[in-house]
Write a structure and sequence with these properties.
The protein has a seven-stranded mixed beta sheet. Strands 5-1-10-11 form a four-stranded antiparallel beta sheet, covered by helices on one side. It has ten helices and eleven strands. The longest helix has 22 residues. It is globular. The chain is 31% helix and 21% strand. A hairpin with a 2-residue loop joins strand 6 and strand 7.
Length: 325
């Protein structure tokens, strides 16, 4: 039985990501309530691999082990929106687009080297791209497989994302990569469209309608119900650098395959396992894989949400809610 213990900063940097996610959640909620979701109609208009938009990024397709609540979330998204042409539902194993349905493949973007607006396409000489990919690998300071604890859903202006806490300080690794890239004149210079300081994957993207109304309310309700819940673990053992699409479907990436892919050979940190072992002996630890403990709270029961901060005492390890803005 898995559990979500209080973890030290040297293993799962909770205090790094907690305030970021709190601010991200409240800011986006205000914006959505004010003006609705942003709608990307180009996705639905250019399905089946016809959407030419690409960015240059570091990305991965993690192996995902969902918790019972994570499975319930994915079932809810699939049954509610799987045939809806106005949304893209992301899944680890998406079906081919069928009829009006629009699907995406669940992925993790570590960072964008060049965003969708800046990227103008790669060089035609394959060897140059491979050399660039190898350089990126050498500049990314992390060799071990990465374990990500998926800890909730956040509604953002484009749809829904799942957020997580990695077993290593990914922001330190990203900063080192940025410094390395800026110290030389690479084939493709670093032009990040935004500073990526979180660990997230897109679950759903709005691609039709006007971004308001009952459907928007439905998405906000899902985000509230699955706010701060343990959804499972994702394991990253392979990273690619190359042109990435919005949906990351195989039919799209077959047209723009990765420039380079490498494996992370080292095992993930075992300190999390040690924390879990010690947590099992503590009366203060609550298993969030226990369906009985989740039956009312995770699905919007008496309190309407399952608050990790309160359940696991994360206030004691520095996960403070930022002041209201």
């Amino acid at each position: 039985m898995s559990s979500f213990p209080v973890m030290s900063s040297s293993t799962f940097p909770i205090e790094i990501y907690g305030p970021i996610y709190d601010e991200m959640r409240s800011r986006n909620l205000r914006n959505i309530q004010s003006s609705g979701f942003n709608v990307d109609k180009e996705i639905s208009e250019k399905r089946e691999g016809r959407d030419p938009r690409r960015c240059l990024s570091l990305y991965s397709f993690p192996t995902v082990n969902l918790s019972l609540v994570g499975e319930r979330l994915m079932t809810t998204l699939s049954s509610t929106f799987g045939s809806d042409p106005d949304v893209v539902v992301y899944s680890p194993s998406p079906p081919d687009d069928d009829g009006d349905a629009v699907w995406g493949k669940l992925h993790w973007t570590l960072l964008q080297i060049q965003g969708f607006k800046d990227w103008e396409g790669g060089k035609e000489v394959k060897e140059d791209n491979v050399e660039f990919g190898k350089m990126v690998e050498s500049y990314f300071p992390h060799d071990n497989k990465i374990k990500i604890r998926m800890c909730g859903v956040i509604a953002v202006k484009t749809g829904l994302v799942i957020v997580g806490i990695p077993d290593t300080n990914m922001n330190a690794a990203r900063d080192q990569f940025r410094d390395n890239m800026k110290s030389i004149n690479p084939l493709y210079p670093l032009k990040e469209p935004f500073l990526n300081d979180i660990v997230h994957s897109t679950l759903l993207r709005v691609c039709g309608g006007d971004g308001t109304g009952p459907k928007a309310d439905q998405l906000l309700k899902i985000a509230e119900e699955y706010n701060n819940v343990y959804l499972g673990d994702a394991y990253v053992d392979k990273i690619s650098v190359g042109e990435a699409s919005w949906r990351m479907m195989d039919v799209e990436l077959s047209k723009t395959p990765p420039m380079w892919t490498w494996r992370l050979e080292g095992e993930p940190s075992t300190s999390l396992d040690n924390d879990e072992a010690s947590c099992n002996d503590s009366l203060n630890c609550v298993s969030i894989c226990d369906s009985d403990s989740l039956s009312t709270s995770a699905m919007g029961g008496e309190d309407g949400q399952y608050d990790v901060l309160q359940q696991f005492g994360l206030e004691d390890v520095g996960w403070k809610r930022p002041p209201s803005r």
